[in-house]
Amino acid sequence: MKATFKDVDFILSPDKAPIRIDYTQYNFVREPVRLAYIDTSM
Predict the structure, then answer these.
(1) DSSP code of residue 33
(2) Strands (DSSP E) along 1-42, which ranges?
């Protein structure tokens, strides 16, 4: 399965403002694996 999220909030710490990220997640079932590619700038 592939899930793509664009311009979402990502919380690095409860006491800091969230950053905006683009996020693509891949889930594989045969051997349970989750990989994520995150694209952002700080």
Answers:
(1) E
(2) 2-10, 19-28, 33-39
In order along its 42 residues, the chain shows pLDDT tens digits of 899 999 999 998 999 999 999 989 998 888 888 888 888 877
Residue 3: Cβ-neighbour burial (10 angstroms; 0-12, 13-18, 19+): exposed
- Cβ 10 vs Cβ 19: under 8 Å: yes
Measured CA to CA, the distance from residue 40 to residue 28 in angstroms comes to 24
Ramachandran region of residue 36, left (φ > 0), alpha (ψ -120 to 50) or beta?
beta
Residues 6+ apart with CB under 8 A from 31: none
